[in-house]
Amino acid sequence: FDYYNSVLINEIDENGNYVELGNEFILEVNEHFNDLPVNTSLSNIQVPTNVYNKDPDILNGAYWSEALNIVFNENFMQDPTLTWQYFGSSMGFFRLYPGIKWMPDGNGVISFDCRNRGWYIQAATSPKDIIILLDISGSMKGLRMTIAKHTINTILDTLGENDFVNIIAYSDYVHYVDPCFEGTLVQADRDNREHFKQLVDKLNAKGTGVVSKALIEAFIILNKFNETGQGSLCNQAIMLITDGAVEEYESVFEQYNWPDCKVRVFTYLIGREVTFAEYVKWIACNNKGYYTHISTLADVQENVMEYLHVLSRPMVINHDHDIIWTEAYMDNALFQTAAHSLLLMTTVAMPVFSRKNETRAHGILLGVVGSDVPLRELLKLAPRYKLGVHGYAFLNTNNGYILAHPDLRPLYKDGKKVKPKPNYNSVDVSEVEWEDTDEILRTAMVNGETGTMSMNVKVPVEEGKRVLFLTNDYFYTHIDDTPFSLCIVLTRGHGESLFIGNVSVEEGLHDIVQPDLTIANEWIYCVTDIDSAHRKLSQKAAVIRYLSGEDPDLECDEELVQEVLFDAVVTAPIEAYWTAIAMNVSENNEDGIEMAFLGTRAGLMRNSLFVGKEKRSNKKFFTAQDKHSIFTMDHFPLWYRRAAEHPAGSFVYYIPFEEDMGKKTRSKTVTASTAVSVTVNKKMAIAAERSRCPCTWIPESCHPG
User: Which residues contact 577 (CB under 8 A, 6 or more apart)?
Assistant: First the structure.
């Protein structure tokens, strides 16, 4: 049986023929899939380098899983917002829809193995408490110790935030790799896993291995956690990594684990020597575990994965279709997108098991099926225009980590490159909602509670150069069938009511088509990302087509469209006012107004230039390049937010501080509390600020903003 191998497709040999497993596979660039060349009719299969791509198990799995092509297609037809859909097999192959061309790394290696991914491991097993026992006796020197350390690192890579772990090294005595964690288990989050890896790497082999003391220590910790309701409250296991055992340690198991065998024991025999293999195998098989022999570094990956199949058996036998949602992770293809907090994805996945009656008692896990969900799709359920000037929504996991938040900045600049921060997906709620000093909000959301609370907060804006003092109301609740909680944050005085007036479509259309009027292109007035015919449309163009009846298939937010139509009609007269001012401004008057602009809560913006574009001091202002000055999915414009916090009729003056402006003449933005604004040059602005500011004048060089 032949299948489309994602690495070999469209490859041609020296005779001009397609290579084996590499037949012609049509690929077309698709905007919905990050502008990658894909095939939306078929899926194809990726096989890691350490798995033979014509192994009978791989061929058999590729054959029966081909039926997923129909399912994937139907899913995408029913919900065009879906992104990647896939099936990860327990044999190692990965079926991905839509099909793509998979490129090896610089060394020609395909290192991606779906069985190592967080979504696969979480779906295939339940949460677990793990204690790893490492033999560091003298016989473990050299290659054996290298293999043992690699085995521990691989086990750690299979753990996630819902798991708990500790590592004990033993020889003549029991030695915790981190003395601070003595007698306990710690959450297997990214930081702790990396911490353990560094400590394990420093271990040296010496002395005589005494297994019984280490086993007793491990059983005491696990039993204590089980009795006190700590840890994962699910599976418990001991991982014994050694080059041999001189006895069966039956008395230890009789005292601490038999007859219930609540703790599984997995054993890993390291090295080529098998003299003591029987004892090591007996320990695993009599404690509901699994025995593996690892003689080379290449054997580690496949052998470690076996424990996952054992832990999945009870779930498979009971046919528990537990749906899991992963923590946030980065979609590499979207690094250059503007709204960095919206680059993140989550995966929804579930296990797939054999339904054959003759094998049901064996609990055979076939793999895991899943789909990626961009977090921006979840945040669309809390539209910006409904939350007011300073309002926002955020999501966090049951471990207290942020899934999506306007203040989550997962990327940093390394020279000209943009890279994800090492701990971008393990930022705690308390690090962004830092006013919650008693962790009342954090605790309630982690526990999945529903409720409200209020806090006085200091909100940094303009990258920390300025601060707004606000009173926020927090409304939080748990999202059913997920490990997530949602919080809506509204600022007192904003976001609690809407102002809607009735205007005719004809009147609104006349004003909205004007070239000086724009609407927030990151907001969703009309859904343009489902139908391929609509993807090239700006939001303004989509609204115009919807209102004019040109495109009856467009799905639009009628409430928001009604708001923006009303705003367009009400603000239209200001054009004549600005024109009258412009006529009185001398072209040679360099001390005059450069630009006037206006914004409304519905995301509408108008502007009028009083000088030529080439004479503007800050050419980025009011363009998509300057995210602070326009409406985005994350926030209202900075000038709008600052003006909203002042009494009606007052003015706010400020000089934008931009590194790339250098020593050029800086423009001064004068923002009225009615969100009607003008941009003037620095000389006029300082004069105005001196004459109007009721407080002591402070030179620009003496204060940061």
Answer: none
